[in-house]
From TrEMBL:
EC number: 3.5.1.25
Top-rank taxon, per record: Bacteria
Alphabetical UniProt keywords: Carbohydrate metabolism, Hydrolase, Metal-binding
Comp. bias intervals (Low complexity): 7-24
This protein's name: N-acetylglucosamine-6-phosphate deacetylase
Binding site for Zn(2+): 143, 209, 230
Species this chain originates from: Streptomyces chromofuscus
Protein family: Belongs to the metallo-dependent hydrolases superfamily. NagA family.
Gene3D superfamilies referenced in this protein's UniProt entry, alphabetically: Metal-dependent hydrolases, Urease, subunit C, domain 1
Molecular-function annotations in GO: metal ion binding; N-acetylglucosamine-6-phosphate deacetylase activity
NCBIfam families xrefs: nagA
Length: 401
């Protein structure tokens, strides 16, 4: 339950505008970011729900001169928004959170849970799997309860447990084929066997909230772990004698590293380090958002724990640990380009192409190519969001001045 001080959604859908749920339209004049690079004065042809290679004569044209068009954002790790939690809210609450993030450009979202008891999590998996079957979310990410009490962050220590493969299997089964990722501390008893189980069932094994050594992390990667959950956060710091998990995760080409680019979770130098060593092909920007994203400051619940959000930063009331973020992906994009000075093409890979590939959905989403879903974001010259299209329909009509 939230007691916000004020809403902060910065873009809203409007009842009029160039909606194209079943027709053809040509978006023209913008700088379009394609897999091959940036096309100046490019165009994107939308035919129904998909991107097309050609348009019939006299198709309506939307002039986006002076703007950018980039693929819709794909968020692998998101706990809620709009005052709603994906872990504890009703179906209506979850839908409100999803729609909040869509207003900020996230056209594909994986709903993340936080630590709870097994009965609660299996029940929650059933609810979220129904939304995945309806196409509202891309699947479920379980963050906890199989994490280290030494690096628990904003998770309830009383509910943590070792990653017994039998318990991991319960969550997989409860998700009915919609489990996409599970974060675990692989150094705990059962951790490596659980990684192998996840891989066997096509679920991403993510190393996170871990106190593992370098050697233990290497063993987890060799067993099949392929994602670093919010790299640098909730794990031992990089050391020159005990390099820990960060070095192992950064150096291995099989691993994609999640980064929370909100200016709170990471110093810019840490972000640069990750990009320099992992490379743009192995970075996925995530929000790790909680209820307050796109909503406002105030008191919230994250699982059973109270969170105070002040000036957009979420911290546990007891202990002061960072408790997720209030980030939206449009803000992550703008910060990456204007403050971190990353190339636009690299930011697009981190926000769209790379997470789409991880999810095994890059045949449908993650880039602006014929045959793929018409998921895209319109940004102005300052990289502020002006429009969002999802599956060929404007969620946010372009706000053109």
């Amino acid at each position: 339950m939230a007691t916000p001080s004020g809403a902060r959604v910065t873009a809203r859908p409007t009842p009029t505008g160039p909606r194209t749920p079943h027709g053809v339209s040509i978006l023209t004049g913008a700088r379009v970011v394609l897999p091959t690079g940036v096309a100046d004065a490019g165009q994107v042809i939308v035919d129904g729900t998909r991107i097309a290679a050609a348009a019939p004569e006299n198709a309506p044209v939307v002039d986006l001169s002076g703007h950018w068009v980039v693929p819709g954002f794909v968020d692998l790790h998101n706990h809620g928004g709009g005052g709603a939690s994906f872990t504890s809210g009703t179906v209506e609450d979850v839908l409100r959170g999803i729609r909040t993030h869509r207003l900020h450009g996230t056209t594909t979202l994986v709903a993340s849970t936080v630590t709870g008891d097994m009965d609660f999590l299996t029940h929650r998996a059933g609810l979220l799997s129904e939304l995945a079957e309806q196409g509202e979310i891309a699947g479920i990410h379980f963050e906890g309860p199989f994490i280290s009490p030494c690096r628990k962050g904003a998770h309830s220590e009383e509910l943590l447990r070792h990653p017994d493969p039998a318990d991991v299997r319960k969550l997989i089964d409860a998700a009915r084929g919609r489990a996409r990722m599970l974060t675990l501390a692989t150094e705990l008893p059962g951790g490596i066997d659980s990684v192998r189980l996840l891989v066997e069932h096509g679920v991403i094994a993510a190393v996170g909230h871990t106190d593992a050594t370098y050697e233990q992390t290497v063993a987890a990667i060799d067993a099949g772990a392929t994602v670093a959950t919010h790299l640098f956060n909730a794990m031992p710091a990089l050391g020159h004698r005990a390099p820990g998990p960060i070095a192992a995760l950064l150096e291995d080409e099989r691993v994609t590293v999640e980064l929370i680019n909100d200016g709170t979770h990471l110093h810019p130098a840490a972000l640069e380090l990750a990009f320099r060593h992992a490379g743009a092909a192995r970075v996925a920007f995530i929000t790790d958002a909680m209820d307050a994203a796109g909503f406002g400051d105030g008191r919230y619940m994250l699982g059973p724990l109270q969170v105070e959000v002040s000036d957009g930063v979420a911290r546990l009331v007891e202990g002061g640990s960072i408790a997720g973020s209030t980030l939206t992906q449009d803000r992550a994009f703008k910060r990456a380009v204007t403050i971190d000075r990353l190339p636009v093409e690299d930011v697009v890979r981190a926000l769209s192409a790379n997470p789409a590939r991880l999810l095994g959905m890059d045949d449908r989403i993650g880039s602006l190519e014929p045959g793929k879903d018409a998921d895209l974001v319109v940004l102005d010259a300052n990289f502020d969001l002006k429009g969002v299209m999802r599956r060929g329909e404007w969620v946010v009509d372009p706000q053109l001045n």
